[in-house]
Amino acid sequence: MHNFIKKTALSLGFDACGIARAEELTEDKTFLKLWLDDGKHGEMKYLARNFEKRTDPRLLVPGCKSVVVVLMNYFPEKKQPANAPIIARYAYSEIDYHTIMKSKLNKLETEIRQDYGASCFNDDCQHLFVDSAPVLERRWAQRAGLGWIGKHTQLIASEIGSYYFIGILMLNTETEYDKPVVERCGSCRRCIDACPTRALENGSLDARRCISYLTIESKNDIPEEFQDKLSGCVWGCDICAEVCPWNKKWSVPNSHQELNTVGQITEWKKENWAQMNETEFNRIFGKSAIKRAGFRKLMKNIEMIEKTISIVRLCIK
Ligand code: SF4
Ligand code: SF4
Is the pTM of this model over 0.90? Predict the structure, then answer.
């Protein structure tokens, strides 16, 4: 079964697949509790809910015995023009990655059902996840032998890097399991030093300081202390991933047709973004992950980086 699942996942277009035994994530419980107690999740209150389920998949999916983890490369071939407001690479595709990953995972589930029977799944509850439930995806990817969690808190997949979507399928049956990968950051701290807002201090990510959170998740205005530190980013941030030597060594452009890039992202200059109206936004980004933050938030972020650039220019004069 182990080999069948991995082979099938690759044949469906996933770039890697691993399987871990479903058990309580004891090492994450303490860490997560401290992280939440420190309020590092900011306005993302949902992260504090379902604490027990989040740290034990057998409570989330009763009867769950194995966690299948799949990865899909999203590193785009084309870059944005210099000086364009920066969009995180994971949002380049025309179709929201949740839709793409779920569709592929559904196919994987169908194939497993056909060969091993419906009893492999708990049909009384959701058992397929892409960023949508209390599941510690990166930890499961690490346990499933796909990579390690770097000091920037992202998964670094062995031989392929960190520009990957993660999908999870929970099985109510046992199989063979992959061996966890040993951490390979060593004494490197490039991501920590490169973070413009010092969000990676003290061994964890303080979401309240992270540009990804500030430009997408937070419903509030970006606090003044961060306004001149956005480094041109208006929707997410890839800075800590960009400086990682493993990404420099391993990242290659994806070859997934489903991840067709929105043309405007790699063509538009800053004036095109600044002139965009809401109708255009809905037409261009209506199916993409970018719609999540919404038109107003994106335009506010664009105005913010323009304002800070103008202030810097004035100071230089
Ligand atoms: S995504 Fe950007 S702001 Fe967030 S930790 Fe990484 S470098 Fe810092
Ligand atoms: S930049 Fe260095 S410390 Fe950070 S994740 Fe990459 S290897 Fe690890």
Answer: yes
pLDDT in tens, 105-154: 999 999 999 999 999 999 999 999 999 889 999 999 999 999 999 999 99
- Which residues have CB under 6 Å of ligand 1? 152, 195, 197, 199-200, 205, 210-212, 237, 239-240
| Annotated domain spans of the chain | 1-78+88-225+233-262
Among 28, 131, 178, 228, the one annotated catalytic = 131
Task: Write out residues with Cβ below 6 Å of ligand 2.
Answer: 150-152, 185, 188-191, 243-246
Secondary structure, 3-state, 195-220: CCCCCCHHHCCCHHHCHHHHHHHCCC
pLDDT of residue 316: 46
Pair of tokens at residue 35:
């992280």
Task: Say how many residues make up the chain.
Answer: 317
CA distances for 298 relative to 85, 171, 218, 274, angstroms: 10, 39, 12, 10
Structure tokens, 281? 């936004």
pLDDT tens-digit profile of 64-93?
Answer: 999 999 999 999 999 999 999 999 999 999
Query: Tokens 């966890």 appear where?
Result: 180
